[in-house]
Structure formats: C-alpha cells, structure tokens
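chain and backbone:
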Amino acid sequence: MIQGGAFTPDMEQRRGSRGPIKNEWENGLNNKRGTLAMARLGNQPDSATNQFFINVADNDFLDQPRDGAGYAVFGRVIDGMDVVDEIKGVATTNKAGHGDVPIDPIVIESVSKVEQNA
C-alpha cells in the first residue's frame, strides 16, 4: 500500500482539522487493488483523520475486524493506476524517524469526486 496525507513534503506532520471520524468499515466496500481507505491508530477504530492509503494489491485482511473494526474504504482510483504503480516503485529511505519515505517527495496535486452511476 501507499500511505499519504500525514506529512508535508518537508516531513512536518499535518493535523486533521476536523478531528477523528467514525469508522464506516461495514459500508460494503473492500480493500481491493486501486481502492482508497482511511488509515487509523491500532486498537482505536474511530481514530482516522487525514491519513489514507491506496491499496496496490488486494488486501482482504484489512476487511476483517482486528480490534472491533476493519479499515474503511471510501473511494477508488478510476484513472491513473499506472501512476500509482510508478509511485509504488520509487526509491525510499528513512527520514524523520519513518521508514519507506520516498527520497524525492511525491505530492498528489488533485483528486476529484466522481458520482457513481446508479
């Protein structure tokens, strides 16, 4: 998976502006390749703020409750999975006490909400 949303390119931690949200993991969506899900603290299902991850493989184990809940999927990549795969392959290092940090910062410049046809 590729995790984002927590830090600026300079590794300054971002703070969620609205506080933690309720974990909606039983929404019928699964952690399959190309989906986006909320990151959260262990043993605290309702702790998600601004951190998220993009599943680069099917991660069915994240759908199973481990501490009362699974990980809530809230969207999916509908175009640009090739870019996600490129991000997955970048060189990483340890930085500011974190591992697997891209050597060159990667910034998502835009996302769009697209209404799903019924």
